[in-house]
Every structure is written in structure tokens, then in C-alpha cells.
Amino acid sequence: MTKQKIYIVAGPTASGKSARALDLAQQHDGVIINCDSLQIYDGLPTLTAQPDAADLASAPHKLYAHLHPNDVTSAGNWRELVEPLIHDVLATGKTPIICGGTGLYIKALTQGLSPIPDVPDAVREQVVQRYQEMGPHEFYAELQRRDPEMAARFHVNHKARIIRAMEVLEATGQSLAQWQKSKRARPPDDWRFVTEIIMPVREELYRRCNTRFEAMIEQGALDEVKAFAARLDKGEVNEGVPLTKALGFDFLRRYLEGGISLDEAIMLSQGQTRRYAKRQSTWFRNQM
């Protein structure tokens, strides 16, 4: 069987993934496909380090600014988007190049996912409301009674995880642990993944984090945050959507509202970026 090659370029933020993906695209007639959980959204292209006009002109790019900020996505949703896209790229004789720092998305593509059904929004909202009414300890105690296997995996303070376990139980009548034991949906047998993890030494990575954020400010990130915050204020975009977790967004918004100085906003954003890069580096070293 002839294997079809799919490149994956991954690593922490500011590591140089995009430049490497562009090099590969030039060498292999490639199409760059986004694998970043925030770059998939439209709204903050500069702050989320999406490809600029020059990059877009150098090679085809897919799944950047693809979703409205209110849309909810996950590793499973991304996999559903990317698999047919990879098939289409291969069918044209071009080379897919997956680029991004969301490691769970990469694992979903290369290792497959358990077939866990989608949880209806109404069920999710009911579970979240119950958590808020009961509080973490009573809610966790209920999970221990109803799904001891999943409860044993988490601490009472793991809010998102215990809510997820409960909502799957409510929606399907079956423990998430049982779904995770189901046969995974694997990628096609004729795909061969060639993975490159970009991991600069820590001092260089931190320097890149700092200088890139300063460049973002020069490229108009403040105007971008101001416009996006206005959409939040008008209710056009929901508060708490994933894009509001973009590195630096909260601090720049606070500056625009008069809460802190610009220098402080930049310093705090750079620190946040460095810490995130450190967590990503640890994840990639241990998981891939």
C-alpha cells in the first residue's frame, strides 16, 4: 500500500511553527491547515497570531478564521472538519501540512477519538446550573455516587472535568469511562504522518514570546481588541467565548477601560504568554 504523506508541524506558541510550515509548503506544494483552537475563530487575527497577508499569498491556508466566535468547537469537531479537507487536498495532488499548537487536536487526528455522542446544549446548561446551585463538593459527591470510576480520576476542584463527566452521564446514560473504552475512529490506513515538534530552548522561546507580543501591539492588536470588546458589549458575541481567552486579551481590554497602564498590560500579557508556552512545552515533551 502506498502511503500518503501528511506533515504535522507542532510546538509551543511563538516557537516558529508557521515559518516552518511555510517552508514545507514551498518544498512540497503544500496546503497549510490550522490546528490551533483559537486561530480557527474569526475576530482576533493579530492577537491569535494568524497568518498575515504575505503568508496567505505564499501558500494556501485552511481553517483559519473559519468559525464565528460564538461557535463551540472541540477536538472531535476539528477532526470532523479536517479529515475531509485532508482527503480533498490529497486528491488534488498537493501535500497537507497541519500546523498548530493544540496538541489534543493532533492526537485526535493521528490516534483517533472514542465515539462519544454530542451532549445537547440543554443538557449541558442544566448540568452547569446544577453545579452552580449545589456547589463543587455536593456536586462532586453526586458524581461519586453515580459514576465512581470517573469521579476517582478527578479532584473536587477539577470543575470542567467533573461537569463533563456528569453531562455525558446525563445525556447518554453511560459513564464517560465506558465511552472512552469504545473502539476509536482511526485515520485511514494509507495516511502516514510526519511530525515535527518545534521546541526552542527556553530562553529563546521566552524571548520570542516577548518580542512577538510587542510586534502584535505595533501591528494593531489594540484596535482589534477594542473592536472585539465592542462586539461583546453589544451582545453580538457572547461573554466567555474561547476567543476571550486569547493571550493578552483580558489585559489589553483592561487597559482600554482605564484599569491599568499600557506598559503594565504588555508586561502582564508577555508573562501570560511565557507561562502558556512553558505548559505547552511540557505537554509536547510528555505526550508526543
How would you describe this structure to a colleague?
By secondary structure, the chain is an alpha/beta fold. The protein has helices at residues 17-28, 53-58, 75-91, 103-111, 121-134, 136-146, 148-151, 159-172, 176-180, 202-218, 221-234, 249-256, 262-287; strands spanning 4-10, 30-34, 61-62, 95-100, 191-197. It has a 5-stranded parallel beta sheet with strand order 3-2-4-1-5, sandwiched between helices. Strand 2 (30-34), helix 2 (53-58) and strand 3 form a beta-alpha-beta unit. Helix 3 packs across helix 4 (103-111), helix 5 packs across helix 8 (159-172) and helix 6 crosses helix 8 (159-172).
Write the layout of secondary structure elements.
Layout: E1 4-10, H1 17-28, E2 30-34, H2 53-58, E3 61-62, H3 75-91, E4 95-100, H4 103-111, H5 121-134, H6 136-146, H7 148-151, H8 159-172, H9 176-180, E5 191-197, H10 202-218, H11 221-234, H12 249-256, H13 262-287
Parallel strand pairs: 1-4, 1-5, 2-3, 2-4
List keywords for this structure.
Histone, subunit A, Rossmann fold, Helix Hairpins, single chain, 3 domains, about 290 residues, 5 strands, 5-stranded parallel beta sheet, 13 helices, alpha/beta
Give a short summary of the structure.
It is built from 13 helices and 5 strands. The protein is α/β, with parallel strands linked by helices.
